[in-house]
Sequence to fold (662 residues):
Amino acid sequence: MKKEWPLWEVFVRSKNGLEHRHFGSLHAADADMALENARDVYTRRKEGVSIWVVESKNITASNPKNNGELFEPAQDKVYRHPTFYVLPDEVKHM
Amino acid sequence: MKENLYNYILGIADNCLILGQRLGELCGHGPSLETDIGCTNIALDLLGQVRSYYQYAAQVEGAGKTEDDIAMLRPERGYFNTLLVEQPNTDFAYIMARQFLFDAYHYMFLQELKNSKDETLAAIANKSIKEVSYHLRFSTDWIIRLGDGTEESHERMQAAVNSLWTYTDELFHQTEADKVMISQGVGVETANLKEAYYGKVSEVLEKATLSVPESKYFQKGGKQGIHTEHMGYLLADMQYMQRAYPNMEW
Amino acid sequence: MSEAEIKNLEEAFEARIERDEKIEPKDWMPEKYRQTHIRQMSQHAHSEIIGMLPEGNWISRAPSLRRKVALLAKVQDEGGHGLYLYSATETLGITRDELFEQLHSGKAKYSSIFNYPTLTWADIGAIGWLVDGAAIINQVPLCNTSFGPYARAMVRVCKEESFHQRQGYEIMVKLAKGAPEQKEMAQDALNRWWWPSLMMLGPTDNQSVHTAQSMKWKLKRKTNDELRQQFIDQTVPQAELIGLKVPDENLKWNDAKKGYDFGDIDWDEFWQVVKGHGPCNKERMTARVSAWENGQWVRDAAMAHAEKQAASLQKEVS
Fold:
């Protein structure tokens, strides 16, 4: 048969209140096994309180070739940032 | 009283030690990296439990022994583990069948040990039960995968279950020490677990499309220190350093 | 793509690395960059996996429960590190199965040091102290290497490795302060592992084929000889502290260079082991291949079961 176990991406919430972060990947035959493997591989040192796994092939990624059109237009939208707006010196925090 | 408690603790702990030792042999040789790492986690949990038990046993005995004296320096007759856990790593089906047949018992046993009148044992049980419930999930999943996988895996799994079945009844045997401890509310009345155990095991085997062995011929002896031929080699390995270099610290 | 276009891309690529930007798997990269990384990263992963064997050899015989759990955890970590590194390599468009195939067929290399036998308990100490010590010197700079997945894997590896060397040195300390047999065992292990550990840092700079390119891509930040000097300078005082003697008659502090001068390394031995004729090359490979082959039915079964489950789920939905 010789079919390789598919690849899964592992996301771990390292502490209550934090978001899940990408930790790495692993191989597993199914979702249950992927969760067990993720627990055994990526949380051996108390690194997590919650785990997500998703089969890698289900992730759609942007193409770096399109980085120009995707991300550069945001660069000149300085008015989206607070420092764009001038305040009187007397107002220390806003 | 003391001797009974001491022997009772050993009876529990030796199962963990010997199974941990067997799983340790697998490290680096598992069927996939992920599975290898998973099995080693189980070994580490079991050996961690062993240390708590032996440290307590040493204290109960009060003869100034260390956990390692207890772990490494008894003669074969002084180990009270069941025959099941000393069976060799014949193949991954045997490894998982042995694990599952033990985990299902271990889980039910610790559930009850949590209520022991002995506070230390209750505390160890409370901590261990979380580990063991993961072991049981892990081995159950593998029984199902291998039972209901390919034709070859089904055959191997069935062969392993058939072969190890003969060691299951012993899990419920009671030594003299067991009986005394049960009567004092310290030990677990294992007779009450037997039906639930075979119920749980049968349920999983059926889910795995495996047949539940009908054989009623069971082996026993481990709890009295009479082991299978495999045990001597396991101990020779495990005790090697302590025997070859006595009275040293490592 | 025309040659000129490729040349432009290459220049832009090298400039990114120059600026310390990370390269990510989907970014354009020169084919040579991809191949070099597959080679080096998988070699690194293979070393972790093969490295489990000599140390695993002593799990069942560890002299105390404390040592047994520490060693088990360490060998398991190595499996984990292999896994992180294989995963990082897979982002370059090669599967783990293909990488294993390269290892098992002998096409891929792994660190030669693991072809030496572990004969006594002290060897476990020596490996942690010397081999992990040398590995850390090699690995820490890789946390800043140019390929993102490799750098991130290495951050995790280095964080976890920090206990490994201590674990080994602690074993040696205990032996060196113990009974005469124990001290002798420790000295014997140092005698056998010292020179292979020096070789582990790679051929001398004038013999090393990859150094210049690797430096540019930040696969290397220091040359083999610099790393070796660093290793010797940090290790010799550690040996002296516990009363062990480094087995090199020519070892001498050189005040002018603020480092040790040391004797000649037997490079013939190094190349013999690299070429597959070390004391345990065959044993290591046999152990790996049989674990893989014996596991085939298990992996197949898990996959078959998963497919059955998926199919029955499909049926329920439709």
In short: Chain C touches chain B through 48 residues (CB under 8 Å). Chain C has eleven helices and two strands. Residues 281-317 of chain C form the longest helix (37 residues). The radius of gyration of chain C is 22 Å.
